[in-house]
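Observation: inputs received (chain + iron/sulfur cluster).
Thought: call the complex predictor directly.
Action: predict_structure
Action Input:
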Amino acid sequence: MAEAQVRQPDWIDTGPRFTDSDASRLNRMFGKADALGMLAGVIKDRVAGNVAVVSSFGAESAVLLHLVAQVDPSTPVLFLDTGKHFDETLAYRDELVRLLGLTDLRVLSPDADVLAAKDENGLRWSWDPDGCCDIRKVEPLARALAGFDASITGRKAFQSSTRANLPRFEIDTSDAQGRLKVNPLIDWDADAIASYFAEHNLPPHPLVEQGYPSIGCSPCTSKVADGDDPRSGRWKGWDKTECGIHSVNNPDVAGNGDDGELPPGYEPAF
Ligand code: SF4
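Observation:
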């Protein structure tokens, strides 16, 4: 008679992938590593699991993408195609992908039904930029990141007060999944970025020389006077500093955004 089989109960782990103590441990582990060494640990040694880079292909994006390409050019690179980008940004994206040999660009688009229902004429940005960002950035990114354990961002502390105290590893609080958010360039300043561009002969975004030091969607990006805060050209005239993709516990990422409040937050390479 065959030996009785002991039935193993099905087990589905629904807990968060990472916790604050994991982030603290990784911050200690990579406390002295440079950006390239840290990225090697994240991408090659998979200390943060399955990762993707999130890039806006903006004014400074080439630095992070160049570093990532040195470690592994097949790393997934997520680009939010909001439908509102400058043509120059789309051309620059394609130029960098080719130049750096990136082989896994993933273009994320807004849900067509949500767009039709909530931004039929494409002008939501003009009266509800938070809601527009929810539809065109937050929701598509949330969908894409569901398949990853961590995202790599290009945020830097010097860019704004909301980024001043960011660690290199943090928990992505936009949902309860417990993904990690990895900020390899958080301690880089403007001079370090400029030096890296020069040292590696990286092409600038074509709009930088036209007076746009921080570049997002065309309706929400203005030129900035010399000496002014680079991000002051984003959502000019609105009490808004970030696009919401780094928002805390955004319960309805495709929500109506009608309250006009920007959740406390942050940003990826945007
Ligand atoms: S940056 Fe402006 S156009 Fe782009 S998604 Fe946000 S509100 Fe809409």
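Thought: report the result.
Final Answer: The longest strand covers residues 51-54. The pocket of iron/sulfur cluster is lined by residues 82, 84, 125, 129, 132-133, 136-137, 216-217, 219-220, 243 (CB under 6 Å).
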